Amino acid sequence: MRALIETLLMLFLAAAVSAQETRPAPPVSTATNPLSAHNKSLYGGVKRILLRSAEKMPEESYGFRPASSVRSYGEIIGHIAESQYVFCSAVRGDKNPAPKIEKTKTAKAGLIAALTESFTWCDTAYGGLTDTSGAEMVKFMGGDKPKLGVLTINVVHSIEHYGNLVTYMRMKDVVPPTSDPEFMKEMARETSGK
Fold first, then answer.
1. Can you spell out the DSSP letters for the chain?
2. Each residue of 59-116: pLDDT tens digit?
3. 2-22 vs 34-56: helix axis angle to the nearest 10?
4. 53 CB neighbour count, 10 Å cutoff
């Protein structure tokens, strides 16, 4: 799994550098920090999608698990929230508060609050990132990694688990956010600023 994440990260960074060389200059708002601005944009989209996923699933389905060997819906939400502290603490240079969300919270309201708090924790890591500071190395997963890379892994990890949530939602006849035309229109409006 670690090798897959690191490979995806390297492909992402290579594609970003290649795209930067062949495209016209980005808009003024991202001209000086195109990589970190793109990473922040991805994070913002994932944040909205995950919070909406947490809200859409009915309370009674938070304990649902399609097999005994996998996490319940609520445990996945808790795992995502808890993991964000791991990723963003490394970038922030702060001690991970390690809230143990996955093992201690089961109610929908508590899990949504914990997920929201984890995003608030990460907002400062993404918000303060520039392309220059994104290249700074931090200790993570047993080695030195660039801050931008660690935050990219956070986005990849979150999307990986969104895929789990989509399956659970479909099994419970709940339309996932990215399959909801109104939600996607709203996301597009926010992204375009219109």
1. -HHHHHHHHHHHHHHHHHHHHHSPPPPHHHHS-HHHHHHHHHHHHHHHHHHHHHHHS-GGGTT--SSTTS--HHHHHHHHHHHHHHHHHHHHT-------HHHH--SHHHHHHHHHHHHHHHHHHHHT--HHHHTSEEEETTEEEEHHHHHHHHHHHHHHHHHHHHHHHHHTT---GGG-HHHHHHHHHHHHT-
2. 999 999 999 999 999 999 999 999 999 999 999 999 999 889 999 999 999 999 999 9
3. 130
4. 24
CA dist., res. 54 & res. 73, Å (int): 9
The CA distance from 163 to 158, in Å, is: 9
